[in-house]
Amino acid sequence: MLAYNKEKLENGLLVSEAKELYKMKFISKAQLAEIATQLPLLQSNGNLLVRIGFFLLGCFLFSSVMGSIMLLFAPLMDNNYKAMVYFYALIGLIGTELLAAKNYHKHGLDDAFILSMQGAFYGAVGLSLEDSLPVFIMMMVVGLVCCIRYVHTLSALISCIGLVGLLFDLITEQHLMDTMFLPFVGFLLAIGIYVVYRKLHSNPKYNLYGNALRVTKVFSLVLGYFSLNYMVVRELSQSLMGITVAEGGDIPLAFLFYGFTFLIPLFFIWYSVYTKDRMMLIVGILTLGYSFFTIRYYHQLLPLEIALLLGGLVLFSVVFAAIRVLKHKETGVTFQPDRSSDSNLLVNAQALILSTQADVKPMAPENKMPFGGGGFSGGGAGETF
To answer: Transmembrane residues, as ranges (predicted)?
Structure first.
């Protein structure tokens, strides 16, 4: 099923781990270079900007091919644009397979052809069937296949979006169940995706798909939060169920969604600290900020300047308490420097602070020509005759 040599993919993971060890000062630069030169690798770009540049170049190449084909074969196809879009998808598939055969992986060119191929195929399905449900099904299936075959991270995200779109379409358009259950079904779907992530992440067989699994994890966390977010539920209730919220009124079960709007981010933050999960901690902090925005969007309890002042005071109190609790801890969440970061600036800053705080007394200069006592230069008479 894999389009690449599995040994070379695993070698790429080993080199990535070696780079992390080099950053943490466990191995030297010579050892890192030796590891990178001895292992056969795929052609990839570690520089994100260079990869984006090759991605844009690949998109330009794909569009050029499509324009040439349209000029040559449009009269032969009697301007059948639906068939031509399928043909574009076929060209993208051929280009993707050729790049995979040339060992291009995470290079930029392969990303352009994989995504262009999928976009052309989804567009062709939508034009030919004129329905969103088959498009979501194809996104879920083709995205998953591309993720597995080409070890492509964004394809995992496309597959997750297709799954959520399929569920949304079945409930809202196909009337599989009442629309009022949509938030809870979305939340249960997020839990299911997260459980699948945990099972696959704990299995060493799927180490090649580490980035795709991390994207799936973040997607499940974000989906779980926004499924029960008060703003999302209220706006969907007004647009899908035709509920009109009068002034001073609210949506059904509003208290429940108010609670989940804050409880889910707080749970993310607590669980991330408990399990030392940095990614979940970031998601929890961002969603908690959006929760405050959600409530303030509908309820102006305080003027903006007063709310900012109180928020600053609360934030200062929380940070001060965290400093007092974590100041002397050496394990878990601590103030100790991370070995994976460059601590030269921290060391220099510590040396500067110590030099400024040290109590240095000036030394009295030694006088080699004392005066008085009847010595040289007649500075005065001593106590002896």
So the answer is: 48-77, 83-100, 135-168, 180-197, 217-233, 253-273, 279-299, 306-326
Q: Identify the bridge partners of residue 35 per DSSP, sorted by sequence position.
A: none
Amino acid letter, residue 147: C
Place of tokens 């991370």: 338
Positive or negative torsion for Cα 238, 241, 245, 246: positive
- DSSP label at residue 180: G
State pLDDT tens for residues 133-185: 999 999 999 999 999 999 999 999 999 999 999 999 998 888 888 888 889 99
Helix (H/G/I), strand (E/B), else coil: 118: helix
Residue with tokens 């607590």: 270
133 Cβ neighbours under 8 A, 6+ residues apart: 166, 169, 170, 173, 174
Per-residue pLDDT at 129: 87
Interatomic CA distance for residues 37 and 94, integer angstroms? 31
| Report field, pTM of the whole predicted structure over 0.85 | no
3-state secondary structure of 78: coil
291: Cβ contacts below 8 Å, ≥ 6 apart: 229, 261, 262, 265
The three-class DSSP label of residue 104 is strand
Question: Coil, helix or strand for 233?
Answer: helix
